[in-house]
Each structure stands twice: as C-alpha cells, then as structure tokens.
Please model this.
Amino acid sequence: MSRSDPPLWRFHGGLKLSGHKSESTGLPVTEPPLPQRLILPLQQHIGRPAEPCVSVGTRVLKGQLLAAADGYISASLHAPTSGLVESIEMRPIPHPSGLSAPSVVLRSDGEDQWIDGLTDQDSAPLDAIALRHRVRAAGIVGLGGAAFPAAVKLNPGPQRILEQLILNGAECEPYISCDDMLMRERAADILSGAGLLCRALGVARCLIGIEDNKPEALAALEAALAASPNPGVEVRRVPTIYPTGGEKQLIRVLTGKEVPAHGIPAEIGIVCHNVGTALAVHEAMTLGRPLISRYITVTGQGVATPRNLEVRFGTPVSELVAACGGYTERADRLIIGGPMMGFALATDEVPVVKGSNCILVASNQELPQPGPVMPCIRCGACTEVCPAGLLPQQLYWYARARDFDKVQDYSVFDCIECGCCATVCPSRIPLVQYYRYAKTAIWAQEREKEKADLARQRHQFRLERQDREKNERAARMSKKRAALEVSDTGSDSKKAAIEAALARARAKKAGVRSDASSTAAPESARIPETADDRARTEKP
Amino acid sequence: MRFKTASTPHLSSPDTVSILMRRVLWALIPGTAVLTAFFGIGVLSNLVLAITLCLTFESASLALRHRPLRPFLSDYSVVVTAWLLAVALPPLSPWWLIAVAAGFAVVVAKHLYGGLGYNPFNPAMVGYVVVLIAYPAELTSWVAPLGLNGPPPTMEALASVLGGGAAEWDGATAATVLDLVRTETGRGRMLSEITMLPVFGWFGGRGWEWANLAFLAGGLWLLQRGVIQWQIPAGMLASLCLLSGVFWMVDPEGFATPLFHVIGGATLLGAFFIATDPVSAATTPRGRILYGMGIGILTYVIRAWGGYPDGVAFAVLLMNAVAPTLDYYTQPRVFGHGER
Model:
C-alpha cells in the first residue's frame, strides 16, 4: 500500500499549471441557505432528456421523482427539496450557447421534508443487476463533469471481461477543489461506494488515482483504508500534470494501457468513475437517497470568500456566490468549470446542474483577456503539449481551410479539447474553437449525407412501387381480356353470355377489392411522397 | 450582473510571438558582439543598415497588403531576419548590397508568400543566397580579423558603405577559412599546411571561432528557455560530425576535421538560429531530426565538393523545400492508435 512503490506511466505532453486550489480549501464544506426556487433542467446528463412525471401545482417531497429517465441513456431527476412544482417551462441553462431548455421550476416550501420509505430497503447485499438498477433509479450520473449516466457504465455487456475499477480523484484542473474536499471529508463513504461499484462490476481490484498536490486527500483516503482494510483497493499518488484527470490519461498513468481510439475503457477491462460518483452510489445504496446535491467549488478573485459548498441541483449561481460573500470589485468573468475546459457565461441567473463542479469568478488579472491573434508560426509548442499526440497546428491549418477530409486524417476526433495547445500558443490562436468548429461541421455533413441517402432510398422505393402497380394493372387487364375471349368462343351462346356476365362481375368485384386493399393500407406503411409527409416522418 | 465571455481555455501562457522573437535577438547579441570585436565597426554598420532597410520593406509591404502595421512590426520577426542577414553578409557591406538582400528577404520571400507564418523558405537565407549568387566577389571577401593584414577599418571605411562600393574602400580583406580550405585543397595542398596560415585560429577561422562559440552559447540559452527545440540543432550537428568524421578518418590531409566543420563557417549560427526558424522548418519531432540531419549532410556535401565555400544557406533552403513532405511522413502516433 506504499505510495511510491507501484510503477506509474506517462502520457505525452500535458502542462504543469499552478493549482490555485488552496484558495478554496481553507474552510469546511457547508450548505448554502435553502433557495426559494430551484430550476431543474430535464437534461442534466448525456443522453435523452428525462420525461416529467409531475404536473404543475403538484406538491413534491425531497427525493421524490420529478422526471423519469427516458430510454437507456438517460437519467432520472429528483426533487432536491420539498415544495410545489411551479411550472415546467423553458429556462436558461448553464451551457456555452446561453440557450434555454425545458426545466421543472420547484418552489421550496422551506420544510425540506424527505419522502417516506427511503431507508426501509432490504439490507441484504444486492447483486450486480439490482445494484445497477438502484444506481439508475437514483439518477446518478458521472460527477466528474461529463454527466454520463452511471448505470450505463456499470453494464459493460456480457462479452467484456472487466479487471478493475479506477476511481478518478485526480482533479487536474486549476481552481477546482470539490473532489479534494470530498475526499478529505467523506473518505470512508467513498471507499464504501468503491466497494459497491466493484460489486456491481464484478471486479475485485480498484485503484484510486489522486494528484500529488492533494496530500490531505491522499492521507484521508489512506487513513480510511487503514481503518477498514480492503486488499483489492489501492490509493495511488500521481504527478500533477494537466490533464491527468482525463479518463484516458488517468488510465494510462495508472495502468500503462491506452484506451483504443474511439473506444471505451471497458474494451481494455477497465471502468473509470469519479470519486463523487462513488459517494453518490454509497448514498443511494446505504441511505436510499437519490442524487440531489453535490460539492461545488466557488472560487476566484471575484468571490469574497472562496470555498466549497454542498449544493442542491437547481440552485441559481447567483445564490451560491451570495453564500460565499458575494462578488468582489474585481469580478470580470464567470466560468462554470475550470479555466481550461470550463465555459464562460454572461449571466449568473442560471442553475447549477449535476455536471457542475466549479463556479470560477475570475478577475482580469487572473485570466487576462487574450491579446490579438497572430498568424501561426509553426513553432510546434502545441505539438509538444498535446496529450493526444496530435499535430494541433496542422489541424488548425486544415480546419481553417475547411478541408475536413484532411482534418479527419489528422485525427481531429481524438482531440479531447483539453486546451493545452491553445494555452501555450504564442500566436494566441483559439485552437480548440477551430477543432470544435471542424467536428461540428463534419457531423453536420454526415447528417446531411444520411438525409440525402434516405431521400434517395425513398425515391427508389417509390419508383419500384409505381412500376409494380403498373405491372399488376397490366396483368389484371390481360386476365380480363383472356376471360372475355374464352367466353366469346363458347358454343352455347346463352350459357356463355351468362357465364361471361358472371365472370365480369367477379372480376370487377375482385378488382375493387384489390384497389380497396391498396388504398386502405395502414398509415404507418404508407410511403411519404410530399415534402410535408417526409418532414413529418423524418424527425419524430 | 453581466460578465465577459471568451472561448476556452481561459488560461494562456505569457509567451507571445513578439517575446519569442525578442529572445532570439537577445541570444544573437553575444555572437554579434564578438564579431564586432574581431571585425570592427563594419558588423554594426551591417546591422544598422539591415534593420533599417528590412523595417522599411516590411512597412511598405504591410501597407500595400492593407495589413495593420503595429502588431506586425512589433512581432520583431523582421528584425530577426535583418539581424541574421547582417551577420551573414561580410562586414562593411555596401548599402545597395544589403538593400537587395533585404528586399528579396522581406518582399519576395516573406510578403509575396503571405507574410509572417506563410513563407515556405527562410527569408534571411533567400536574401543572402540571392546576393551570394549575384555578387560573388563582394560576398567572398571578408574584412580581415583584427591584427591581420594591417589596421582595422575606420570611419573612412564607413563612408564607403554609404558611398556605394566595397571596391572604393581599400582596406584589408581576407578569404574566409572555408574558402581557403576549398581552394587550397583543390590545388592539392595538404590540410596540415593550409591550417598553418595566419587566418586560421585555434580550431576554426581566427575571430570566427570565438564568435561561433558565442552563437553556440546564445543558442543553448534559447534551448534552455524553450524557444527552440533540440531536434534540429542536434540532427544537423550530428550528421555533419558523422559525415566529416568519416571522410577525415579516411583522408585526414584532404578533408577537414569534424571540429573544424562545426566551429568554422556558419555551422553554429545555422544550427541554432537559421535552421530553427519555425515557419520554414519541419514541425513534427521526428521530422525535425530528419530536417536537421538533411541540412548537416547538404552543408557538408556543398562544402566538400560544391562550388561555394559554405553551404549552410543552400542546405537550409533545400531542406525548407522538403519540410512539408517530412511533416507528412513523420506524424506522431496518436493516443489510442497503433503504430503509424
């Protein structure tokens, strides 16, 4: 269990950044005052938005389901406090676009009353499937920032053999310290969560990776491990190099293995979860509590008293800053997340969501506005620091030229948008922005192509059908004609005439029936022909 | 409350193009100072003329291209070009010679290709090679180092710089050591004999050897500050040493020592200041090693068997031409991909 013995590996590049963690770790974590109104976007995770299962005017209790997961890759949403569902409407969300999204607005009744029946779950150890279901029911998503539904990651599929769980406590971005505080204060619970995750995954081994700029967190976890020894769990101290906290980078550092490009860690027998996710799993299993709050860092020179808070989802950012003494005069930029990958917002009237880990209110001195953009001088500083081993300046060149084939040749989709390249660029080129642009443009092109293919298929199908109908009509006509000819050549003219009349009537009847069956085809089987039809069937 | 927004990342390192270029200029100072000490005021007259003319051409080009003057003049890239030209040209070069070199460097090699960042060829070397081919006589007669062939050039000599011709100035000149080695070995003289000539110093050309060591010091400082990376200088020096070492061991009287090749001529200036110009060099790590090696090999080939005494400028320009190809074939392995 010694810290320095086990071997560690390196990934290419990366940056040594000054941490700025101590600003926000001086004070213990507290809860801000209960907000009057909570705004809960239905999509706080990767996947489909949750489906509301309460209506406006319903009184809900803390922990009650507000919106249920819609589909496999989705996550449920629970009430962070008791109160009244005031409305379900479009509200601004914490997203770089500054757009609004459907949200449940919950007016708190101030009683903060838990829903009944959370703890009376059977205490017998659950099997993997039951654990997974409970994680899903608790609305747990990855709390490292990506907010991917945790239950999906607990189900690697029958064909994959998993070897180990990696808990990510690296927290490599400057300023963010919520995982640090979480590990200091809740080490035993994190270990309990790790055990549950191991059970759900059917693995015996768990590595916890923590950057060496967090000695208190390392000590806390080691002490907790000493208190309840588990031979399968190891705490590993890793060097502080941004972006070690990236999933693929941390796996590389701890195991020496590389997750295949465009693959997932389960392909090499590893599942990686954030320490905060482990805590959420512990709370869901032992206390029956769904995910309704998390640790969030509020920091930067623009905040009077930087610290960490345990925050209910849906709390407006403005109230968090108020709970930390409000803004200072130097407040210049508001960033959700860290200075490397966090996004800047123009307003603080947005709620925090499951994926929010940090509110950084930076002064102009901390994060100066970038100077004028100069041409790329191909200095190669970006290549030196790229943790994905890309050639950022070539990517930039081709992205700028809109040469999307070349951009893909140079593996733009392996870019993790960590921002190392743009940080060191002496020409101040917003490189990451160019890569996002290229990726988006390529996705748009692919969608266009799919649409065109679909339209072509439809057209083909329509031609075939018209052809078939024509042939069928021709066959019918010739049959009729043949029947008439037969009747004309009959010897007994009277009998023949009757038979001919009967045949005509039969043929007519049959014809009408077949026409009717073709027109009365069910709506769904019809092939849309007009543009309106097409548009209706394309996007449900 | 409203806040300013910007795209990620919000952090940026303090280094800018302007700061990098200024560091290159700082690193050029020791070598230039030693050159001045040995070759006199002519080095400084080159410098003043080259910087003035290059800045003039740069401003004119920017104005014609409707580009803002301030950001592009303050990036100091044109001053680096001017400085390299000034130390590459013989001291006391006449103004028109510097003007031709500066014009080709800044207007043709740089701005006609799109300005900073877009030039495929090293501008200073384009300017130098143009005058080397056009005016070989002026380019190969160097001012003799102090203490050799009479008194150092005086203010009188400076007047000739502006007056129009080196020919007007009747001062002492001497062939460079590389030139001597080439012509004298061509005549069948032994190297051990040639290197006894007074223009030779301890291990290179008199005066030049110390200036080159000072350029080496500046270059090492650039390496340490991360302005340049090790691959290009290492590749160039290694291949030059290896090649010259092989031929020297085979025929020590016909081929100069590796040490002579490294300290003599423009090797060290080229390895740390010219070949490392990022815009025209290869940019992948492995590509840079190959690029440096190519320059070393070509330099040696031109020196040993070519028609010009020194080959660094030609070698750099030739390798500039293959840099994009090198980059294409030496892409690094991407994380999570197999070997390329």
Remarks:
- Residues 166-170 of chain B have pLDDT under 50 and may be disordered.
- The CA atoms of residues 131 and 223 of chain B lie 31 Å apart.
- Residues 176-326 of chain B form one domain.
